[in-house]
Design goal:
The protein has one domain. The protein is built from 15 helices and no strands. The longest helix has 26 residues.
């Protein structure tokens, strides 16, 4: 009799136990409920506790949203409030407007909010099975519809994070003027040791504010691992924005159409840089943070990064 009862109990327990996909689906549903109430940490915990599912696009998107939520980011608010403020009429106006978005103000390197958005981006970018994140890779891994949803999420987060990057490392003031902020003393992004980059910087107009080769942000030091990582963070925000905007069409979207204008500006930046020096191609086609950091261990590529920053970041923000 005891054996029969034990067998019945085991069969009942097994029949009631949830499969891994069922546990993940339940965690996603609960996390979405938490997010609707702005309970960001609760959403993170329920999703992380079930274990990261790198093959489930919806899981990745919701977990990314939870980390972004903890950083104070709201996709709906960003679309309605910030996108209309982006001015893509020129390169300088674009970078200036990005540095002044509602979430752009950063007073601390590697702040919790900045790091959380980096985590959100990593969740979406580093799971398509390739060494270099791309629209094509996400399309292959998750299918066109889910890849398209992920692309839009990556694009919005990248634009928000680029605004933070420009604001902090260019030391902008409340009007977007480089080098005039109150939390730093630098007027440039980097200290330039490469002669080609130095020539570009010293030739910038006085109105640019970056006219010295030794006035970079101390936390973008290419001689340190942390500095290399941060410099690469800025680059891959730029390159992933280009990759997405070259592969999706937002022009017919009432809420996202304003982002399509960015495509012309950033693509022109890339084209101009490669035309000036074809050796910049490798870095400007790099969309992976880890791949970029590996490249920074090569002296020649480190010099190429300086040229990219002088041509794009310094020239683009005055």
């Amino acid at each position: 009799m005891r054996s029969i009862f034990l067998i019945f109990f085991i069969l009942f327990f097994v029949s009631c136990a949830k499969t891994k996909p069922e546990e993940t689906a339940q965690a996603i549903d609960l996390a979405q409920t938490y997010l609707s109430d702005s309970k960001c940490q609760d959403a993170i915990e329920v999703l992380e506790d079930v274990g990261r599912d790198t093959e489930n696009a919806i899981y990745l998107q919701v977990l990314a949203s939870a980390y972004a939520c903890r950083a104070g980011y709201s996709e709906l608010s960003f679309i309605s409030t910030d996108i209309p403020l982006i001015d893509a009429s020129s390169s300088t106006e674009l970078f200036k407007s990005l540095s002044l978005l509602s979430l752009s103000d950063e007073t601390e390197t590697d702040s919790d909010n900045y790091s959380d958005i980096n985590t959100a981006l990593s969740l979406l970018l580093d799971t398509d099975g390739g060494t270099q994140p791309s629209h094509a890779g996400r399309n292959s891994a998750f299918g066109p519809r889910k890849a398209g949803d992920m692309d839009v999420q990556v694009l919005l987060l990248s634009v928000a994070q680029l605004g933070k990057f420009l604001n902090h490392y260019a030391n902008v003031d409340t009007t977007g003027v480089k080098g005039a902020g109150s939390t730093g003393t630098n007027s440039c992004f980097l200290n330039y040791t490469d002669s080609n980059a130095q020539n570009i910087v010293t030739a910038l107009p006085v109105t640019n504010n970056c006219n010295s080769n030794v006035d970079g942000h101390p936390d973008l030091d290419l001689s340190t691992d942390a500095g290399k990582r941060r410099v690469c963070e800025g680059l891959i925000l730029f390159t992933n924005i280009i990759d997405i905007l070259e592969n999706i069409d937002l022009s017919s979207s009432d809420s996202l159409g304003g982002l399509q204008g960015i495509a012309d500006v950033v693509t022109a930046f890339k084209t101009t840089a490669i035309t000036a020096n074809v050796d910049l191609t490798t870095l400007l086609n790099t969309t992976s943070l880890s791949e970029c950091e590996t490249l920074m261990d090569d002296a020649a590529e480190s010099n190429h990064m300086q040229i990219i920053y002088s041509l794009i970041f310094e020239t683009g923000l005055e």
